[in-house]
Request: fold
Amino acid sequence: MTKGLLKKGLVAFLIVLLILVVDQVIKIEVKTNMYLHESIRVTDWFYIYFIENEGMAYGMTFINKFVLTLFRIVAVVVIGFYLFRQVKVNARWTYLVCLSMILAGAGGNIVDCLCYGRVFSPSTPMDISHVVSWGEGYAPMFYGKVVDMFYFPIIDTYLPDWLPIWGGDHFIFFSPIFNFADSCISVGVVALLLFCRKELSDISFSSKSGKDEEKENESGSDTIESETQQKA
Reply:
């Protein structure tokens, strides 16, 4: 690899490492200092609200826990392999940063699923979790719960009584509770869709860059043209 490719690979690695560390520090700090469902008000529209979930990002649950963890591991391996390929073909910085954020976010939640159930006691509304010996935690490997804590009830109100069906109901705009890893995945995906549409339309696991392919096409065209002239 050239120095430029090595630099891109190092930066991608550092982004993944930094996100993983920040994510785990936040989660461990919350899990070992707060009761389950405890809430800390930061502002009227921002709370640290400790919950745990067994599902996907933002607390969604519609897949078996073991299957979901396996899926996450496979996804991280595939994204990691693809990111490595993109470093080798000298992809744009924007593309590499977005992929690194998504990879790190997915990896951060995998750590919860694989390890938290083995090394932490249960979190409950009455008991704060603490570290235990490996294997003495609240769940087997693959069944650990993901720690979430960021809650942004930007609008918290009641709907007008004159509205049909929902009149008088409690309404919260943006009610999901999520973690740092979830936010990195979301920001990475949105940035990909906004700024990397060309790369997304040309997704390939080939180790050849677009420039290499253009050179091959030109070489092939020259060969065909030469053969045609010889026949003439």
About this structure: Strands lie at 39-43, 46-53, 146-151, 155-158, 170-173, 177-178. The chain has six helices and six strands. Residues 34 and 128 are 6 Å apart (CA to CA). Residues 3-31 form the longest helix (29 residues).
